[in-house]
Specification:
Helices cover about 30% and strands about 30% of the residues. It is an alpha+beta fold.
């Protein structure tokens, strides 16, 4: 594996700086704080994944935070694992609670704090 430590995104760094400078009484404070919490959780999840990627055998190459253009719009891949036989795209999510996948309905549910969320 390529052993390059994951860096915080520029958006995450900007939100951290903005929140430090923004008064808690500012009308946008809560919105900025919530967005920062979401991005921080995402960064934490990707960093946690990197721990497991360190144990991939030789010959596996990992490219992180790939941004590509499909001819219409840009899209981002959290990690791309490249081998001689396949490419594997990883999209990391940092969910709290218990995840349940019902194969017969092709439906993902999350149970957290007694609440059942359904993901399309």
């Amino acid at each position: 594996m390529n052993n390059i430590p994951r860096q915080k995104t520029s958006e995450l760094l900007q939100l951290e700086t903005l929140l430090q400078r923004l008064s808690a009484k500012h009308p946008m404070y809560e919105q900025v704080h919530e967005q920062l919490l979401r991005l921080t959780a995402g960064h934490f999840g990707e960093t946690a994944m990197d721990f497991y990627l360190m144990y991939l055998p030789k010959g596996y190459h990992v490219v992180q935070d790939v941004r590509l253009f499909d001819g219409i719009q840009h899209f981002q891949i959290d990690a791309l694992i490249i081998t001689q036989k396949f490419l594997l795209i990883l999209e990391v999510k940092n969910f709290k609670g218990k995840l349940i996948f019902y194969f017969e309905h092709q439906q993902l549910f999350r149970l957290a704090n007694g609440v059942k969320d359904i993901f399309p």
